[in-house]
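Internal QA ticket QA-208
Title: Verify multi-chain structure generation after dependency bump
Assignee: T.L.

Test input:
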Amino acid sequence: MPGRPRPGEFELIRELFAPLAADEPGALGLLDDAALIAPRPGRELVTAIDTIVEGVHFLPADPPFDIARKLLRVNLSDLAAMGARPRAYLLGLAIPDAVDFDWLRHFSRGLASDQLRFGISLAGGDTTATTGPICLSLTAIGEIEPGRSPLRSNAAAGEHVYVSGTVGDAALGLRALRGEELGLPAGEREAAIARYRLPEPRLDLGMALPASAAVDVSDGLIADIGHICAASGLGARIEAGRVPLSGAARSALGSGAVEIVDLLTGGDDYELVFTAPADRSDAIREAAARARVPVARIGTMTEGEGVSVFDPANARIAIDRAGYRHF
Amino acid sequence: MPGRPRPGEFELIRELFAPLAADEPGALGLLDDAALIAPRPGRELVTAIDTIVEGVHFLPADPPFDIARKLLRVNLSDLAAMGARPRAYLLGLAIPDAVDFDWLRHFSRGLASDQLRFGISLAGGDTTATTGPICLSLTAIGEIEPGRSPLRSNAAAGEHVYVSGTVGDAALGLRALRGEELGLPAGEREAAIARYRLPEPRLDLGMALPASAAVDVSDGLIADIGHICAASGLGARIEAGRVPLSGAARSALGSGAVEIVDLLTGGDDYELVFTAPADRSDAIREAAARARVPVARIGTMTEGEGVSVFDPANARIAIDRAGYRHF
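Actual output:
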């Protein structure tokens, strides 16, 4: 049954999107050509863009409420890795005629929900037609004190390597959605799917951490540590046995459905992986406790290049793929 | 004949896109999670997003060099309407597998060319796969002194209404591309098509103008003046005979292929329409001369609401459509 027909662009903006911009004066009510964003005194702006496409990053039947939150959260995860506080975002929607008002209404409600959760407001946008799949682009804008971002290039040899939360769950969730038999109890299967569907950006942790270098886990743990290595001109030694795993991941390992390499190279976990000097380990623990996010030390930055992974018997694990790539 | 196969995302970034970010230190070489943008002292940032889609805003056979420039320029036109100076941009590319390296190379060269022309640098981006048409999103970031933007809401009754350049050419160009017989000499036909294919953002004019309110002509002259009216709670009286027309537009009017209403409501001209008090008319003329862009007074802001259009005999012209809408 088709829903309410979609009104024109201006009505859509007024009815669904302008309310999302009410708390950001620089959005000018979405009535102008652009938004005005003045960082607070002593802050600079941090900006990141991400695009997600129907059939690639989400499925046509996925709830629009969750698609909106995923779109926002993958960007917020980039801000988290920079240690930034969310401020505003711009939204670019390319949607086919078949997308009806109800879909857009639920999409806008997903945005509204996460705006409250993460303290961010819509500042501008653009809606256009497409003859293809839904294509959604979002630019997130955050604020930070100059010099405070844990840049990927800022790691030093000897620093500890940490990761938040657990790793590999999103990859498990994607396999479960594709119908693979993973030998998981129903609850663990659902938890893994939820991790794939809806990232949890580690914003509080990112703002609290005294990290030297950080990146969010989107390409896969090993690939993303590799980004820090490449940018810092260093290598890393990772202890696979120290990498924190969820109950679902341990079950899937136990049943033989996956290998540890699948978990270490699976993408879309959106945890933070970061480095810090050894003498900051207490400060790291305190920051993690304040942010209420578990953090585990998984290795050490080294001279050289590339990421070497070792099992608990100190045997090197071959990593035959750098991580998930979107193409 | 297929071109060079497309390398992976990281190679593409290194080879084609990182060079476009060389002049913006905050881009961090496109190696990090986000870009750091500190406005210069005494400035705030102006941001706008636009999305263009293959088959909707450009044709599959269009040269990627021009597609890149169109994508950048439609955004720069928004900055022009805010009176801002271009600073940096973020790029979101959703591209199907069939797009080869050569296409992307020419696309990146188009960006490089316009970066030099308009003084802007790439600061960040995201490349992803799509199963549908090419979907390109760009967020432009400019700088301006706080309070200097000619907001749409800032017009006053009695102010003069001006427009830059000529109006209606892009709509003519689109008709010509669709094969309509417009009775145009070849040179005028080509000029109209060029206006449709490649906007000329009025950045120098936007920065120079002492305007109260401004908007760029993207939905159509009358619709865009209507945006100023709605935001300012006013009406406007427009003299159709004063609206500046190109040779092509005059030819098409003369041959009866189009009516004046078609030109006044055609979209995508990317001229600036703006208002200013009568006592600033000399300053407007001087700013236009400095920017080397012709500017014509076409009407007056009034009490009331809506845009009323009159012919040279002072008879009201019925406008039966508010302007081009993308959906």
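Spot checks passed. Chain B touches chain A through 70 residues (CB under 8 Å).
Status: verified.
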